[in-house]
Amino acid sequence: MAKPSHSQRELLEQAVSHYQKNLATAEEYLRGRGLSHADALRHRLGVVIEPLNGHEQYVGRLAIPYLTRSGVVDVRFRAMGAEQPRYLGLPGANTHLYNVNAFFRAKDWIAVCEGEIDTITLDSAMNYPAIGVPGVNNWKRHYVRILQDFDKILIFADGDQAGYDFAKNLTKELGNVITVHMPEGEDVNSTYIKYGRAWFDERLG
Asked: What is the rounded average pLDDT of the residues 127-138?
């Protein structure tokens, strides 16, 4: 799917507004991820209870909208239990960076991580301006140009081989990178839950 048309954006906005009404049903899940109601509201999270036409496969999932200054450009749906696959996307949707509005809040540095929940953790729970990639394999070369104007790029890499390789490759492409590796087997959110913000602040000096 190419850049969403005006009518497609209206449909996406309708879906996001509809699913936001069910946010209360995700409160326990969000608390378990260390995220507040205010964090969820800021990112317009919702839950699919009464699905709109064509969204029946997303029932019971957390709806995570991709927001830009011009509106909603995509929605991804995350399982809140053991369902597989963990994430589902809209058919034919292009891959986007998550939380691009952080570009307008950031000054001389910005954080990059993998996944929407990790991005929300950095951006809202810890107040680090952060963007996210929906899986390291979805990184696109032209994203480098978007990041070149920042003095520093803070990469919060998952504690696995994919996270290590992602940070290594991005360091080669940008050069102005500071990498914070999560403990083995952990991601940003799980590290935040276990060790708190102090763990991150200590590693950034």
From this structure: 93
